[in-house]
Amino acid sequence: MSPIAPDPKPPELDHQNNHRAETSHAFPPPAPEQRLDSGAASDDSDAQSCTSASTDSTTQYDQEPWPTFQPKVDQLAAQLVPGTLSSAIHVERMQGGGYNRIVGLSITSPPKAPRRWTLPWFRRLLGCTPSPPASPPDITQYILRIPRWNDSIASAAATLAFVGTQLSVPIPRVVASSDSVENALGMRYMLQPRLPGQRLDGAWPALNFAQKKCLAKQLAELSRNLYGLTHTSCCVLGAAQGKGTSVDTVEFLTLRIPPDDTHIDPLRQIPSSLPATPQTTLEFIQQTCTRWDVYERTSCHRLTTPWPRLAALASALHARGLLPSPSTFHFTHLDLFPRNILIVTPSPDTVVISGVLDWDDALFAPGWAACRMPVWLWTDDNADEVDEEQGLRAPETEEGRVLRRVFEEGVGDEFVGYACGRVYVLLRKVFLWMRIGLSQQHLRREFGAVLAELEGLVGEKGGEEETGNE
Q: Basic and acidic residues bias located where (predicted)?
């Protein structure tokens, strides 16, 4: 595979790849070394530097063992950095997450010598100028993300392209990618600069109160800016097939039903995703329920499904004023937890968010689905990060109450109302199932329990029990 020179675009738009044919671009020219704290991570929720990573992942994810996988990474890196000595490319095994295998790449560039035929070059050649002391080499660090299940990276790359041009959010841009398996790895991949900073979940215990307040303000600003980015439909971001993954080729698509290719019936004629069209919140719920109902009846051969029950419940909630139905949808990260936030601490009183990772689930959603309280800011260390019930209770400590007040003042009343309303907490659980489906029986039981609680709030009679194949 011959490398292709990068396009002369601004860094935010340097996203390369076609859906079908691999078009991996060469690395950009190495930048000065960027020192990283020990917790620096890739755009993956669980990625950590781990030179002696556990072999358990090889068995757990049924992936190729590192001793045979590393030579493939070496080959890909050599193709992406033409003309670079193999000794200047360092490959580092890292601990990945549940969805991505992670590899660190470091490219060492020697100090630049004076340009030939210039006065400094002649002076150096004639010995008129003593040789300067040796300077440390420039090192540029990258993260290589490889989907464990070989899923398409087009949507993730399109999301990063979009966010990078719409928001002032520090994100790991894409410098090279392949949505094809026709490459040295035999797998799809995404290459990104390694961002500076330490993962917040590791840094949090060492932060003082002033730094935590500073972080609460920044988190509120980030949440407000995300919420302020709107669309006319609930949609995910994708890349137009065969047209690369730059911001100019981003498409807005309906939720994918089913969410992955492994559950698609090859005989099914209905596409899993469609171009998004303007809609209200109530229309989104009803249309999505219809799509899931059709899918389960035709591809899963179920006689009954719970989706008509949700559609009827949404209408009842809306009629009683408990479900707003605007035609505006708000951008949300959906996984904005400490493990996906990088920080630096420039002073004893300040913290700066240096990176926001893992945008794979980001989308435009109803306002109540886009707002949630970061309860981990004011709860104890053992608190469950996804337990929203804690957001309905007052913090137990004065420090916690101050941090919550700082965040609430930063995001505003509308955000707080959506985040803390009991109906909206339950609807956010429903929204999750609308995204991922009810492929397992325990999910169907939990779904039914939440619907029953919502029906109790509006005095609706519960739906009939499901029958048919499970």
A: 9-23
